[in-house]
Design goal:
The complex is a heterodimer of chains A (673) and B (151). Chain A has 673 residues and is an alpha+beta fold. Chain A has twelve helices and 38 strands. By secondary structure, chain B is mostly helical. The longest helix of chain B is centred in the first third of the chain and has 22 residues, at 3-24. Chain B is globular and about 45 Å long. Classes of the chains: A alpha+beta (673), B mainly alpha (151).
């Protein structure tokens, strides 16, 4: 048996040799090590080095392909695409961006089997610069609706945003549908808690040219700047910037891997709030072999936030958990825009904002306006507030002029019968840093790990589903019931640990019970942890009125609201607006429980999959009855803008077609017969 | 960086890249090799190194360990790529990558050095900087995992 095994191992190694490329020439070694990854903090190293985007001219569609910098190699070691690199030269850092190069779309798909993006909310994840006048930015959660698990690729020419395409990793039909479907259909999100860092894996970034009716010709590509390290919002201070081209010439144009404060001055890590203890495994634990420690940062940009958890405790089960939060920095509309669709609802005579986040289970956040507004999040916060009333909690925000930060006091004054305060109000420290020990040994693709952080994960976990009490080496802990089986327990005065990413509860519990906790120095030494690149802490506190602010409308919003006003209807923005963006206007109906919406989107950026159920002519304009699967509506196009209206017939109109007829006229879209 | 460095590299480059492919995967081999060699010849100790071959092996091994997480990702990515149209990865190549994924970086190194270069436990320990006992333990563990996979 041993001889047979030995023979098979040798045969396997022989096959491996067939797959091994020839070594690069000695003179090429320097060039290779200028490549992406060399100077990156190890835990943030990208799995790919170039993103390229294809922008198809014509204004009807933008197609995106994300390709790998390093040409994929065939088994024989041959380069997958023709390379123009000159061998035997050593490139020196340059300051000029590379010229754009063209690559066939099919090659683009082959070049990049995968891009891994690590980042949190509203972060610029990547920037690609071509010369001085053209750039592409890959952004998570930009200023648009449904921020959760959204990414957009924004094209800029001569400083102007000319194209923006977005996709949702959990609901590819929502925004751009077929445009990025080939990408988003295979996108996996690892975002177990709201707002935390996540990993988006885009695989098989192919361009579905047939579905998008565009020519499979060329993909503009050139340099890319990937700033996966907690990038500041200001593009000028992108943490890490690389320029790359398909020929493999990589020029590092700006590198900053040390933490900086708000003025850009390097600071030590301990300038940021750190956990009391750091995660580790016993020295003889074999999982240490592939363990990797890294820092991550929570909420560097937000203002103060205080959260608590109330739930029913039935034996060793926590059920009906509700997360109650007050924010110092968010107006109601901003909070609304951070979640999924929202629908105002009257509860006890107060108009409560109601957001449903996409996902399973669908979580709802109800926001009670006030100073500050208070958010209730869980599986059924509307039912909870209806039963319990709106005075469960009160909150105050006080500003500290010396530090420029704010304190949010949350008081649970009327917890209803049957509920208990499980986690007392706790304030998440601004810019707090979490520590993770990542293990490849997990049952899931991204492995498993142990994290310590300054906020209790139980608040988010128990408001997303039932959790069960468990014992972690004598300490009380909790475990979720769903995949991932997240275990959390307190390990320090202000520190909680969590374990997740396992396929079974037993696996999570075993790892939790095997976890050890050490000081930062020991953790860094044991796992060779690099210093992180931390974002400067920015407190965006507003201490005044946090009810919806006056919003400057964009062009389309102004047009639609104006047209509705001509019909005697008062329109208001349903989502946060931004210049050059679409309009999502709603008309709140009588009792505030329902509304009619009118959306206006430039045809160039309109996407989504829908079925045209029927067509009719109204005022000379073709009006389509369209079905998106979950919602339907009436759509028409006028002067490169696509309008969609849906919902109940507004008061004063005999039917929806009469409303549409007058709306078409008010928009000056009427066509002669 | 002198002529002798280039000569030393040229002398061992082929076997080193095989070793790099074994521990880090074929697609990472060039990067691992390049970083390892440049680290080695940039070291103040380089000029005094007598056994440059062993030193370079250790440099490659250390570099592969350093990038172990991205190594795993690359290997998994290669496997996934094999499933997609346009990638010419044969079933046997797929098996090779799958086998590599069964082993830790250290186990891959020990297997390669033992089975491909026929090094003794002592020499494997010297090439990797591990203790002989660790080499034996890793080799035994690797054989168990390979047996599960191959037989």
């Amino acid at each position: 048996v041993n001889d047979q095994l030995d023979g098979e191992i040798r045969a396997l190694l022989a096959r491996l040799e067939d797959m091994t490329p020839l070594p690069p020439a000695f003179d090429e070694l320097h060039r290779r090590t200028d490549d992406v990854g060399r100077e990156w903090p190890r835990w943030r190293r990208p799995a790919i080095s170039v993103a390229a985007a294809a922008v198809v001219a014509g204004g009807l569609a933008a197609t995106v392909a994300i390709i790998q910098a390093r040409p994929a190699r065939t088994p024989s070691g041959a380069t997958a695409v023709p390379s123009t690199e000159a061998s035997g030269t050593t490139s020196a850092p340059a300051t000029t961006a590379a010229e754009p190069q063209l690559v066939d779309a099919a090659d683009a798909a082959r070049l990049l089997p995968e891009i891994v993006i690590e980042g949190g909310r509203n972060e610029q994840l990547a920037r690609l610069d071509v010369g001085d006048n053209y750039s592409l930015r890959l952004v998570s959660d930009p200023d648009g609706p449904n921020r959760r698990n959204t990414f957009c690729i924004i094209e800029e020419q001569n400083g102007q945003e000319s194209t923006q395409v977005c996709g949702h990793d959990d609901n590819p039909r929502t925004d751009v549908g077929g445009l990025l479907e080939a990408v988003t259909n295979q996108t996996v999100s690892n975002d177990p808690s709201r707002g935390g860092p996540r990993v988006i894996v885009l695989t098989a970034a192919t361009v579905n040219v047939a579905a998008n009716n565009c020519d499979p010709v060329t993909v503009k590509t050139a340099g890319v700047a990937l700033s996966l390290c907690s990038p500041p919002r200001d593009a000028r201070h992108t943490g890490l910037t690389f320029t790359n081209t398909l020929d493999g010439t990589v020029v590092r144009i700006n590198v900053s891997i040390t933490p900086i404060d708000g003025a850009g001055v390097p600071v030590e890590v301990d300038a940021f709030p750190l956990p009391d203890v750091f995660p580790a495994l016993a020295l003889d634990d074999p999982r240490n072999e592939d363990a990797q420690g890294f820092y991550s940062q929570i909420s560097p940009h937000n203002g103060g936030r205080t959260s608590a958890l109330i739930a029913r405790q039935n034996g060793d089960l926590l059920t009906d958990g509700i997360e109650i939060s007050a924010f110092s920095d968010r107006a109601v509309d901003e909070a609304l825009a951070a979640g999924g669709s929202n629908r105002p609802q009257a509860i006890h005579g107060v108009r409560v904002y109601n957001m449903v986040e996409p996902g399973d289970p669908a979580l709802t956040t109800a926001i009670v306006p006030g100073q500050p507004a208070i958010a209730y999040r869980g599986l059924d916060p509307i039912g909870f507030l209806t039963d319990a009333g709106l005075d469960v909690a009160t909150a105050t925000v006080s500003s500290d002029d010396d530090t420029g930060t704010a304190t949010v006091d949350l008081n649970l004054v009327n917890v209803p019968d049957g509920f208990e305060v499980i986690v007392e109000p706790e304030t998440l420290a601004l810019g707090a840093v979490a520590a993770t020990l990542h293990l490849q040994a997990g049952d899931t693709a991204d492995g498993t790990g142990i994290t310590t952080q300054l906020a209790s994960p139980l608040i988010a976990l128990a408001s997303s589903g039932d959790v069960q009490a468990v014992d972690i080496n004598g300490a009380p802990g909790w475990i979720t019931a769903g995949p991932g089986y997240v275990v959390t327990w307190q390990v320090g005065t202000h520190t909680w640990a969590s374990v997740g990413g396992n396929a079974t509860s037993d696996a999570s519990l075993e790892l939790a019970r095997a976890a050890q906790f050490v000081d930062e120095a020991s953790w860094r030494a044991r796992y060779d942890v690099d210093l992180p690149n931390l974002s400067p802490v920015t407190d965006t506190t507003v201490t005044g009125d946090t009810t919806p602010p006056t919003i400057a409308y964009n062009e389309l919003e102004t047009m639609v609201i104006g047209a509705l006003a001509e019909l005697g209807l008062q329109g208001e923005t349903a989502e946060h607006s931004f210049t050059g963006g679409p309009a999502n206007i709603r008309v709140i109906l009588s009792d505030g429980t329902d509304h009619t919406t009118v959306d206006a989107t430039p045809t160039a950026s309109h996407g989504g999959e829908y079925t045209v159920v029927s067509e009719r002519i109204i005022n000379g304009v073709v009006v389509e009855h369209v079905d998106y699967g979950t919602v339907d509506g009436e759509a028409f196009t006028c002067r490169d803008v696509r309008y969609e209206a849906r919902g109940p017939t507004p008061p004063g109109f005999t039917d929806f077609d009469q409303f549409l007829s007058e709306l078409i006229t008010a928009l000056d879209c009427e066509q002669p017969d | 960086v002198g002529v002798s460095d280039a000569e030393a590299y040229d002398k061992y480059a082929v076997e080193l890249i095989r070793f790099a492919a074994a521990v880090a995967g074929p697609s990472s081999a060039e990067d691992v090799l390049a970083s390892a060699v440049l680290n080695a010849i940039s070291s103040p100790r380089w000029a005094a190194i007598e056994n440059r071959r062993a030193y370079l092996y250790r440099a490659v091994f250390n570099e592969a360990v350093k990038v172990r997480r991205s190594t795993e990702r690359r290997l998994k990515r290669e496997l996934r790529a094999a499933d997609r149209e346009g990638f010419e990865v044969s079933p046997s190549d797929r098996d090779v990558i799958a086998a590599l994924l069964q082993l830790t970086v250290r186990q891959r190194a020990v297997v390669h050095l033992t089975y491909w270069l026929d090094l003794s436990t002592t020499d494997v320990a010297s090439a990797t900087g591990m203790s002989p006992r660790s080499v034996q333990r890793d080799l035994a563990a690797a054989r168990r995992r390979m047996e599960e996979l191959l037989t």
